[in-house]
């Protein structure tokens, strides 16, 4: 009895603690909502716009999802669209005298870096300076910083300049060893999303497409760095191959940097440039503060909407990725909003469920009957991500966008061998030939495999059909460059898979022109969640567990895990790219 009361008391205390934490969280959210954004930043004269370690660049508002205890942290999520507009505004802002890049690592995609770099090149035409400082500098950070007039490196620092590589983890032997069976059906010899489960080495087709893709990406990147640093292309290749950036003295000797100095010396250098007295404090303004301080200009009642499609595509409802039910609601809102004159569909997705992608494409086609839809590709627009773009009147791609992957696959795991080894068997009673088409232990029936194969083939034909209509090419032409193959945006333009190479800003300007509106504002969909919505999203059991697993095994490995475990994906026909591009 004493033990019973002890347990009851312990449970009551636990409930009180949980209730107290929940209450405190709600109070903090109310305070954050009440005071967030109320203080306006004043931009001083002789200010320097600074891209520092606190800046986290995101592609869409849906990525701006802090944890329930993250308010007040130093991380600032800033939309790439806002950063580019800020750089453009700073060109003619007399208070901003220059831009300082002070980041060793960047959380930004390849195409985002390309766009910021191009914006900085344009900014320099104003006569204002761009300087950069680094300690232990990642390759993406150096790619961006190399555009600077002066690059200063810490004397004990280094630059991780080594070129690009892509390593694929193969799991067939692992699956065989532990008795995990995988029924895999795919269309397209280049559809390598499931290759890690089918082989224990890289196929010639996958090696070919990865080699072409990486060389397309690195050629342009290397040319831009070499041109900015005024290094001969052959010499630059030697510098990269020899890893000279690792040693500060060699970085200086081979013109990767202009000077070796401590951070305080770098600040003094900027002060001298601005003719600021040594004892005066340098006025650094972060991008997030500069954006929030910008005066909101009324541009009429007409709107161009940016509809963000960021993440993998799934059926049903969910958060942070693209879930068809939620997404279609936003499409219908745009269709009914008379103030929205045109829509820019910003795609940054590797694809996902074929069924969900088809649902979304249909609703976008209905929207297109009412107003223009222009598509802008971000880091990747592959498989289902490319599929939903087929509602577009015009497609803009970045040169380094991972594009295409016109292919389909299905994969069903089963565990017969490992179950049998551990004394488990499964036997079924059925009424029809394929009533028990799928069993977690016995796998898929021959009839099930046959019909799934037919379904994959039909889905591929439907995919190609929509591409032929949008790209105005024959089935044979698309099939030749399809087959699951992934292309760079530059090569996709040559092949006719996209219309123009350009940025999100280019797509917005064209959409406004198409809608015949001169004065317009920008609205974004899906809308950013309120703090209360974020609280309840983060409390979802599946959301919490997925975040924990992703943090443990890494985002790249998590996508393989999700294919095996996500109930929305593991028994579906999928249109999904095998990888993402990162300039690590």
How would you describe this protein?
It is built from 22 helices and 24 strands. Residues 28-38 and 67-74 have low confidence and may be disordered. Helix 16 crosses helix 17. With 584 residues, it is of the alpha/beta class. Strands 10, 13, 15, 16, 17, 21, 22 and 23 form an eight-stranded mixed sheet that branches. The relative contact order is 0.14. The N and C termini lie far apart (61 Å). The radius of gyration is 26 Å and the shape is globular. Helix 4 (139-145) links the parallel strand 5 and strand 6.
Quaternary structure annotation: single chain
Biggest pleated sheet = 8 strands, mixed
Strand portion, in percent?
15-25%
Helix content: 40-55%
Which class best fits the helix and strand makeup? alpha/beta
Count of helical regions: 22
Average pLDDT over all residues: 84
Envelope shape: globular
Beta-strand segment tally? 24
Identify low-pLDDT runs: 28-38, 67-74
Q: Specify Rg, calculated over alpha carbons.
A: 26 Å
Task: Write out key terms for the chains shown.
584 residues, alpha/beta, eight-stranded mixed β-sheet, six-stranded parallel β-sheet, 22 helices, 45% helix, globular
Q: Could you give a quick summary of the protein structure above?
A:
45% of the residues lie in helices and 21% in strands. The chain is of the alpha/beta class and 584 residues long. 38% of the residues are buried.
Topology diagram in text:
Layout: H1 2-35, E1 47-52, E2 55-58, E3 76-79, H2 80-91, E4 96-102, H3 110-124, E5 129-137, H4 139-145, E6 150-159, H5 172-177, E7 181-187, H6 195-198, H7 204-229, H8 233-241, H9 248-253, E8 259-260, H10 263-274, E9 283-286, H11 287-293, E10 303-310, E11 313-314, E12 322-323, H12 324-336, E13 340-349, E14 351-353, H13 354-368, E15 373-382, H14 384-387, E16 394-397, E17 402-404, E18 408-414, H15 416-421, E19 438-439, E20 443-444, H16 446-471, H17 475-481, E21 486-488, H18 489-495, E22 500-501, H19 504-515, E23 521-525, H20 531-538, H21 541-553, H22 555-565, E24 573-576
Parallel strand pairs: 1-4, 1-9, 2-3, 4-5, 5-6, 6-8, 10-13, 10-23, 11-12, 13-15, 15-16, 15-17, 16-22
Antiparallel strand pairs: 7-18, 14-24, 17-21, 18-24, 19-20
Helix pairs in contact: 2-3, 3-4, 12-13, 16-17, 21-22
């Amino acid at each position: 009895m004493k033990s019973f009361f002890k347990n009851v008391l312990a449970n009551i205390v636990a409930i009180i603690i949980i209730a107290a934490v929940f209450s405190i969280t709600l109070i903090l959210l109310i305070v954050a909502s009440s005071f967030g954004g109320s203080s306006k930043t004043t931009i001083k004269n002789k200010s320097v716009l600074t891209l520092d370690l606190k800046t986290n660049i995101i592609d869409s508002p849906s990525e701006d999802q802090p944890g329930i205890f993250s308010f007040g942290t130093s991380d600032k999520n800033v939309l790439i669209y806002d950063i580019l507009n800020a750089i453009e505004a700073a060109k003619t802002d007399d208070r901003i005298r220059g831009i300082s890049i002070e980041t060793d690592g960047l959380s930004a995609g390849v195409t985002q870096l390309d766009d910021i770099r191009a914006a900085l090149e344009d900014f320099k035409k104003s006569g204002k300076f761009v300087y950069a400082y680094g300690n232990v500098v990642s390759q993406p950070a150096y790619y961006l910083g190399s555009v600077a007039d002066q690059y200063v490196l810490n004397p004990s620092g280094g630059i991780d300049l080594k070129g690009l590589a892509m390593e694929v983890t193969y799991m067939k032997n692992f699956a065989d060893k532990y008795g995990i069976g995988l029924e895999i059906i795919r269309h397209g010899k280049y559809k390598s999303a499931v290759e890690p489960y089918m082989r224990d080495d890289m196929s010639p087709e996958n090696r070919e497409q990865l080699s072409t893709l990486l060389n397309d990406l690195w050629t342009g990147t290397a040319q831009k760095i070499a041109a900015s640093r005024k290094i001969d292309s052959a010499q630059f290749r030697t510098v990269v191959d020899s890893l000279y950036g690792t040693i500060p003295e060699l970085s200086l000797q081979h013109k990767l940097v202009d000077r070796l100095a401590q951070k305080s010396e770098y600040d003094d250098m900027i002060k001298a440039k601005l003719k600021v007295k040594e004892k005066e404090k340098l006025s650094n303004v972060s991008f997030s503060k500069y954006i929030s301080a910008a005066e909101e200009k009324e541009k009429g009642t007409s709107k161009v909407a940016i509809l963000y499609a960021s993440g993998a595509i799934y059926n049903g409802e969910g958060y942070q990725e693209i879930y068809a039910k939620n997404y279609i609601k936003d499409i219908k809102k745009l269709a009914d909003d008379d103030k929205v004159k045109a829509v820019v569909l910003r795609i940054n997705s590797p694809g996902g469920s074929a069924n969900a992608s088809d649902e979304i494409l249909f609703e976008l086609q209905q929207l297109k009957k009412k107003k223009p839809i222009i598509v802008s590709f971000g880091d990747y627009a592959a498989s289902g991500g490319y599929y939903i773009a087929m509602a577009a009147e015009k497609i803009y791609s970045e040169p380094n966008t991972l594009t295409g992957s016109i292919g389909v696959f299905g994969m069903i795991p089963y565990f017969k061998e490992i179950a049998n080894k551990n004394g488990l068997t499964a036997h079924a009673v059925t009424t029809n030939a394929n009533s028990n088409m799928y069993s977690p232990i016995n796998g898929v029936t021959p009839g099930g495999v046959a019909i799934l194969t037919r379904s994959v083939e039909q889905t591929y034909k439907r995919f190609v059909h929509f591409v032929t209509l949008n790209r105005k090419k024959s089935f044979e032409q698309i099939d030749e460059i399809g087959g699951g193959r992934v292309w760079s945006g530059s090569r996709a333009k040559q092949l006719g898979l996209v219309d123009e190479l350009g940025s999100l800003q280019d797509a917005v300007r064209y959409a406004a022109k198409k809608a015949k509106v001169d004065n317009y504002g920008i609205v974004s969909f899906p809308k950013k969640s309120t703090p209360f919505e974020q609280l309840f999203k983060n409390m979802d059991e599946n959301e919490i567990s997925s975040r924990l697993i992703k943090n443990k095994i890494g985002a790249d490995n998590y996508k393989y895990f999700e294919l095996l475990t996500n109930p929305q994906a593991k028994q579906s026909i999928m249109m999904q790219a095998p990888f993402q591009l990162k300039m690590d």
